[in-house]
């Protein structure tokens, strides 16, 4: 990855807008805030603008309240006139939802930093490598290899949260000895693994746990017994008072069933369906997601389908998943 080019872009420009994907996770939020910090250390003007609100369990990462929720009337002009747009933890501009047109039409340099497969070639500055565990790890390497900023406690906290969550608390495939050595440097800056884990995974509202209870009652197995899936409806959200962001991680319960190789979560949107895919070992659910205009990682992917009904799309996706399993 050509970090010297990225450093040159930063050195030669003054105004930056940073954004990430809809419904951001800790890798997206942590990467944004770490990158904002390194830009501020270099005296740059920085705006962090997201389409979605920050999930409440990640608000502690934004201790300076840098992140602004997208408002077309306020932000489109800023996006149009900035020098550089940094897009983090996404490689398809559609993942910025209603920000897409403003970003796509801006004459600013567009810089994509990401670790997912199947990138859209919307910029010549694509720092994308799916061998990385997380976008946060890419930013760690950028900082440490170029010396562009001090790896202070604030950046260490953001990057630790990014890496810890996207590695499934250091249990997924890309958790290597080298990654642990990088994380050790973050811990040396004073980051507390207990505190970060507690804030992200052990401080949920009661509504989230009630929603999980509803979701677990919908668990079903496919005919082969190798696919488990659950369903969440808008009615469930209303009854429990939970948020869409509360479902993060629910799909992993599907993989805890003996014999299951693919887990799926069907989430009813107001105007469509969101599907999360997870798999074990050598089953590439990114291929499954791509068949339905989605994408992601080998073992963790997803898609959003608009203007479709749950009852129509669910059988089709389950059938497609069964066909995929015949090859793996």
Structural class: alpha/beta
Shape: globular
Oligomeric state, counting identical vs distinct chains: single chain
Q: What is the end-to-end distance?
A: 32 Å
Largest beta-sheet characterization: 6 strands, parallel
Write down the overall mean pLDDT: 96
Helix proportion: 25-40%
Rg calc:
20 Å
Low-pLDDT windows of residues: none
Q: Based on DSSP secondary structure assignment, what is the total number of beta strands?
A: 12
Percent of residues in beta strands: 15-25%
Q: Which CATH top level class of the largest domain fits?
A: Alpha Beta
Strand order of the largest sheet: 3-2-1-4-5-6
User: How many separate domains make up the residues?
Assistant: 2
Annotation field: number of helices: 12
